[in-house]
Design a protein that fits this description.
The radius of gyration is 19 Å and the shape is globular. A four-stranded antiparallel beta sheet has the order 4-3-6-7, covered by helices on one side. Strands 12-11-10-13 form a four-stranded antiparallel beta sheet. The longest helix is centred in the first third of the chain and has 18 residues. The chain has two domains: about 110 residues, Immunoglobulin-like (Sandwich), CATH 2.60.40; about 130 residues, C8orf32 fold. About 30% of the residues lie in helices and about 30% in strands. Helix 3 crosses helix 7. With about 270 residues, it is an alpha+beta fold. Keywords: Signal.
Length: about 270
């Protein structure tokens, strides 16, 4: 993934946040916000997206802000509350012109998870999965007779690094709003680092294993990169299926990567 992808997100955020502070919220209905999955570290947002309109969701806790496009009209899309317990502000903004946005809705909610890893199991906008998909059915098949989480992760990891190839053409043309579709990646058997890490996260999450999708930089890759952190035996380990798929068959690879060689910018 190109480094310009991160820069574009940063620029958009600055414009959004500065604009949002100048507008008052429209309406008082809470129907736009679903808090029923807070015990899983998730919040849902739904809004009527009129033709030609562009909406953003901002999730802010302290100095950390995540910005998302709202893609589906009148249908809840779910997002992680990945900045630990505490108070979050959830906002919906509408583009008015250029980089200017107005605030439509805003609400503070409190997250109080007993186990912070539970925020990394559910289906969210950019790790969107359900049990009927080909990829998750394959995950169930691969892990059916595996006793431990480590064995399950290993089975999914080995499947991905042996079956999914890197898509150089997509890497050259990927857009800033690109979100992988896990079954499309599964069927095409190719993708960029974002596809690898999203597919891996969806498959491991679908068998109950907490998995983070992480974006940032790595000593193994020159460009902006995506990889996974997986919760096994009480600790988070770093797994990079993109790098290992490229090396598979050429040299020996180990599933557990040195986390000191990775710097996270965003975590989902």
């Amino acid at each position: 993934m190109r480094r310009s992808f991160l820069i574009l997100i940063a620029v958009c955020f600055i414009s959004l946040f500065s604009a949002a502070s100048t507008y008052a919220a429209e309406g008082n209905s809470d129907n736009w916000l679903d808090e029923t999955k807070l015990d899983s570290g998730l919040v849902g947002v739904s809004y009527d997206i009129t033709k030609g309109s562009k909406l953003k969701v901002l999730i802010k806790k302290g100095n950390t802000t995540y910005t998302y496009d709202l893609n589906q009209s009148n249908k809840f899309e779910y997002f992680s509350l990945q900045s630990d317990n505490g108070t979050y502000n959830i906002s919906v903004l509408q583009n008015t012109s250029g980089t200017k946005y107005k605030l439509l809705q805003s609400k503070d909610i409190t997250l109080n998870l007993q186990d912070s890893s539970s925020a990394y199991v559910g289906s969210i906008q950019n790790i969107n999965w359900n049990e009927s998909e080909l990829a998750t059915k394959k995950a169930a098949e691969l892990t059916k007779n595996k006793a431990s989480d480590e064995e399950k992760v290993k089975a999914i990891y080995e499947f991905i690094i042996s079956e999914i190839k890197y898509d150089s053409n997509l890497a050259k043309n990927v857009t800033s709003n690109y979100i992988p579709n896990i079954d499309n990646v599964f069927k095409a058997k190719k993708g960029i680092c974002y596809d690898y890490s999203t597919l891996f996260a969806a498959m491991t999450r679908s068998v109950g294993i907490p998995t983070k999708l992480v974006m940032g930089t790595s000593e193994y890759v020159k460009e902006y990169h995506a990889w996974n952190n997986v919760y096994i035996n009480g600790k988070w380990i770093t797994i990079d299926t993109t790098v290992d798929a490229a090396l598979s068959g050429k040299k020996a690879v180990t599933m557990n990567k040195d986390s000191s060689k990775y710097v996270a910018a965003k975590v989902y």
